[in-house]
Structures are given as C-alpha cells and as structure tokens.
Design brief:
Largest sheet: 6 strands, antiparallel
Bound molecules: adenosine monophosphate, magnesium ion
Distance between the termini: 34 Å
Shape: globular
Strand content: 5-15%
Structural class: alpha+beta
Number of strands: 12
C-alpha cells in the first residue's frame, strides 16, 4: 500500500466522495521529478501513461477514495458558508515519515457538491501560474504548497474567452484551511468541529497534545507560522492577491494561488488582483489582513479557550512578524549586528525605491556586490542627492560590521534573489504553452530553481518588465 486516506476515512461525515472527471486528450506536460522523489511518489506512476490512467481510473489505488472537502471562508471580509472543494479533490495522502504527511490534491478534477455555479475545471493559464509560483517560492525559501505535475487537454473551458482545461496535482502537509474550522464553528456543528480538531491535532500538531492546553498550543503555532510566512512575503516583495480565509493554510504556507505578483517597482500599495477594487489585499495590507484572518480563525477556538487566552495568543503575531521581518531585512542589507537604527535605514532605502519607482528585486541585488560604490547607488536613482545621503549613512553603518566586503556581498547575494517570477515572464511561458510548447515553462523553472545564482546564460530573465509587462492586469478567473 503506497497511499493513505486518513481524511476520507476518519472524517467521513465532513467530506463528499467524488470521482475525477477525465479530460479530453489529456497529456502530462510538466512533472516535478525532484519533488516526486522527495515525497516518495510511487515510481511506477512517474511514467506519463501510467499516471494519467491511474488518475482517470476510478478504481486505481491513487484515487479510489477521492473526496471533496467542505469548508467556508471570509471572502473580502464577508462570511461565505457555501465554499468547499468545488473543482479539486483530495486523491490520497503519502506518509513520508512518521511525522510527515503529504496530501495529493488534484485541481481541475470536475464538478463536486460544492461547485455552485462553477464548471469544476481549471484552465491551463492558471495551472501554469500555480506551478511556476510554487516552485519559485519554494526555491526562495518561502513555505508553500508545491506542484507535482501538470496535465493539459483539448477540453474547452469557458472563462473570459474559450480556453483549455488542465489539471495540477498539488502537494502540501494538508489542505486544511482556516475556513474548515470556521465552517464547522459557524454552522453550529460542535461534534464535527471537535472531530476535525482531534484529527488535526493527532495528525498535524501532535506536539501540541503534550501541552496543557492543546488547542491554545495549536493556535499559537498557526499564529507564529503565519507571522513568519508574511514576514517572508513582505521581504521578498510577494503579493498573494486573494487572502480570503479559505485560501489561508493552517500550516503557514503560501496556498491557493490566484492573481499573485512579485513586485516589480516598489509600490507599497500595489494591488495585484484586479477585482480587488478597495485594495483590501494590497501589498502593504498583507500583514494586517493576516492578523484579521487569524482573528476569524480564532472564533473556532472559542469552545476550547477563554477570551483572554485567545487575545494573548493572537498577541504573539505582531512582535513575531516585526522581529522576523527585521531579521530578513537586515540580512538583505548585509547587517549581521543588530543595531537600533537598522530599520530606519531599511525604511529610508524603501522610500528611495518608492519615490523613484525603482525595481524591488534589482535594487537589493545592486547593493549585493563587493565593490559597491557611492556612484553605483547614486546612478540608480533620479533623486541623486537623497541616494547619496542614504549611501553615506549605509557606509557608516557597515563600518560597525566585522566581516569583509566579499563575505558580506556573498551573504547578501544569498538573501537577495537575482531572479523572481515576474508576471511578464510567466505570461511569455503561458503564451508558448497555449501553442503546445512547454519548453519555455521548463526553462523558466530551471531559472527559478536557483534564484540567488548569477546564471550568466540566463541574464535576460533578470530584466525588469518591458512596457507591455509593466501593469499587467491579472484576471481573477482561473
Ligand atoms: P478560489 O477563488 O479558487 O480560491 O475558489 C473559491 C471557491 O470557488 C472555492 O470553493 C472553489 O472550490 C470554488 N471554485 C473556484 N473555481 C471553480 C470552478 N471553476 N468550478 C467550481 N468551483 C470553483
Ligand atoms: Mg481558494
């Protein structure tokens, strides 16, 4: 037996058994061999034909117990109890070690009882975006779900225009979202909520069971993991785009990719989701929204914790986030010592970038060279005087450091990526793939797998966006 089905079996009355609806003329286009080996995905399913036939055979070991999970969620601040896996199925789980579970979830698998008005499908464009982003984030060291494989098809799927259906197998510790717990709390089903908590504690937070209050320990873990995640998003300039509570993982990983973006020019209020008219999920709102979401999740913990305990636990978020963010930003500037004024220096640098609309990633990378001169920095900006003043302060601060310039530059290059998944790069890869050519996807994946390396042969991928790629409107439809 390769596969487990603990969620399907232990939580039978929280799920709906659903079979995969095959796609017409399905082809395996991307397969993440490294990940497959890491999670011990059975060797005989590494072959395209055997994988697709296992996926589409309702009796295969892989999907014999496929289920759709029920959850709800706060979408743009409003509670929606009607959500659930509307187009994704949990196929099976892999236990890679005693303490490590890996979910195999098929996105785009067809209609389920939670599809509402949707067709249960995902399009090639959005599955490629998810595949690329999860690999990009993973290799930057940002916790995320990961893509195991991508399947294209000739099945017509209608969004703003006709596109083609595709599927993606997504992996992560579990697909448990804030919205799972919120749903069973708000729908007043305490027995089911209790079962869900017991399952989650036993399978995913066993260390919390050793604590006096297991639920409080679990909430605390989620609060701290979420703070760490958001600190990373902010420091790498990543914008999630749809931080609804149904898109928030209890494991503190980046989850459910939609119209995300890595910042090009540094614009704190950048909104990457063009349906987000109020900017609720703008880049600089993410830290606050994550806390709002944790607060929403905490309601589900009220049967197990006093209000004071909940307040105390949620109170761990802000100091943790501030501490982690400062740590990451200090690293980006090459500051190993901790000095009080460091964040002022960071913020002044960010103001320079904002005022002159400079590229977030490229500007930090510029600082990461051993022989950086005042002229290099001044020439990077329009506001030359302000840049010169900042550089003088930065140089004085660097004098307090003990490592050599070369050492510092090396460490800074390991904290400041040269390559990030800019939306225009993803779009080029998608355009080619829609013509049936996945070579550009493969090439881009190779680049994103070593984001901190110079990769002389791939310099073009470090370029800031051309005119057409500057303010791309990424559709929410997927
Ligand atoms: P998302 O915007 O992808 O996070 O999805 C929000 C909710 O809508 C979830 O309950 C999804 O399962 C559901 N959903 C999204 N797209 C579709 C679709 N094409 N068909 C059915 N349900 C969908
Ligand atoms: Mg979602």
């Amino acid at each position: 037996m390769f596969f487990n089905h603990s969620y399907a079996k232990d939580l039978q009355d929280l799920v709906s058994p659903v079979k995969v609806a095959p796609l017409f003329n399905a082809k395996l286009r991307l397969f993440n061999k490294t990940l497959a080996q890491e999670i011990k995905f059975p060797e005989h399913l590494h072959q395209p034909e055997s994988l697709i036939s296992a996926l589409f055979n309702p009796q295969s070991e892989l999907n014999r117990h496929s289920i759709a999970q029920k959850y709800g969620g706060h979408q743009f601040g409003s509670w929606n109890p009607e959500l659930g896996d509307g187009r994704g199925l949990l196929l099976a789980e892999l236990r890679t070690s005693e303490s490590r579970n890996v979910d195999l979830h098929l996105k785009g698998a067809g209609k389920t009882p939670y599809s509402r008005f949707g067709d249960g499908r995902a399009v090639l464009r959005s599955t490629i975006r998810e595949y690329l982003a999860s690999e990009a984030l993973h290799h930057l060291g940002i916790p995320t779900s990961r893509a195991l494989c991508l399947i294209s098809s000739q099945e017509p799927v209608y969004r703003e225009k006709q596109e083609h259906g595709a599927m993606l197998i997504r992996t992560c510790q579990s697909h448990l979202r804030f919205g799972h717990f919120e749903y069973f709390y708000h729908s007043k089903q305490p027995e089911k909520l209790e079962k869900l908590f017991q399952y989650t504690l036993a399978n995913h937070f066993p260390q919390c069971l050793e604590q006096k209050n297991a639920h409080q320990a679990m909430l605390s873990q989620i609060v701290n993991d979420t703070a760490d995640l958001v600190a990373k998003w902010q420091s790498f300039g990543f914008c999630h785009g749809v931080m609804n509570t149904d898109n928030m993982s209890i494991h503190g990983i980046t989850f459910d990719f939609g119209p995300y973006a890595f910042l090009d020019n540094f614009e704190p209020g950048y909104i990457c989701n063009h349906s987000d008219h109020q900017g609720r999920y703008a880049f600089d709102q993410q830290p606050g929204v994550a806390l709002w979401n944790l607060n929403a999740l905490a309601h589900a913990f009220t049967p197990y914790m006093s209000i004071d305990e909940i307040k105390e636990t949620l109170g761990e978020y802000e100091p943790r986030l501030t501490e982690q963010y400062a740590k990451l930003m200090r690293k980006k500037l090459g500051l190993q010592q901790e000095k009080q004024a460091d964040m002022t220096l960071v913020n002044q640098w960010l103001s320079l970038l904002e005022n002159d609309k400079r590229d977030y990633t490229a500007s930090f990378r510029l600082l990461s060279q051993a022989n950086l001169s005042q002229q290099d920095v001044i020439d990077h900006f329009i506001g030359r005087e302000a840049a010169g003043t900042w550089f003088k302060q930065y140089s004085r601060r660097l004098e307090l450091e003990t490592q050599s310039c070369e050492q510092r530059a090396m460490l800074m290059r390991a904290a400041n990526p040269k390559y990030v998944l800019r939306n225009y790069l993803a779009q080029i890869a998608i355009d080619r793939a829609e013509e049936g050519n996945f070579a550009e996807c493969e090439r881009l994946l190779t680049v994103l797998q070593s984001p901190f390396e110079e990769q002389l042969e791939h310099q073009a991928y470090a370029k800031t966006p051309p005119d057409w790629g500057q303010s791309m409107e990424i559709s929410c439809s997927s």
